[in-house]
Write a structure and sequence with these properties.
By secondary structure, this protein is α/β, with parallel strands linked by helices. It has seven helices and nine strands, in the order βαβββαββαβαβααβα. Strand 5 and strand 6 form a beta hairpin. Helix 5 packs antiparallel against helix 6. The longest helix is centred in the last third of the chain and has 15 residues. It is globular, with a radius of gyration of 17 Å.
Length: 198
Amino acid sequence: MQPPSTRPRVTVLAGPTSVGKSTLSRHIRTHYPQVHFSVSATTRPPRPGEHDGVDYHFISPERFDELIKAEAFLEWATVHGRHRYGTLRSTVEQALTEGKHVLLEIDLQGARQVRQRMPEAQFVFLAPPSFEDLVARLTHRGTEDEEERRRRLETAKIELQAESEFDVTIINDDVDRAARELLARMGLDVTNADPATT
């Protein structure tokens, strides 16, 4: 296996539902500020306390349409049949120009779009220690009813089959360990970093 490149590039993190992508991303945001997270564009209105350009780029549906036609997105999708979200190519390329390591935490559909538009990116699949562990995580969350849990588990089975599409798999058995492995894959030296004091 070749060592990971230290040249800043885009790393795409995806995986099945409930595997812990958001938890891992929050951990990295909190403890490793040297990682750049792209700010997504969305057609939904700001929620209280959200700021344009910080939480999201809030744009009109008409402007979103214009950006799609201009092929300005690395990936985009309609979420819950209502508002659209997308990763702007310009914000990612600007971060790379500034020498930053960019991490995109997106779903499988988004990862496939980025693969088409930016094949030089690194694609990381976040996997559970076992399918039983994934079932336990989803069941113990208590945020969905039985029908929703069943639907998510069926989706997860399909998503797990996409693992072979990715460059590398990281097992999310411990958040700090998984974060360090991901950052090492991104070419960041965190061997001596103490996340508690970073």
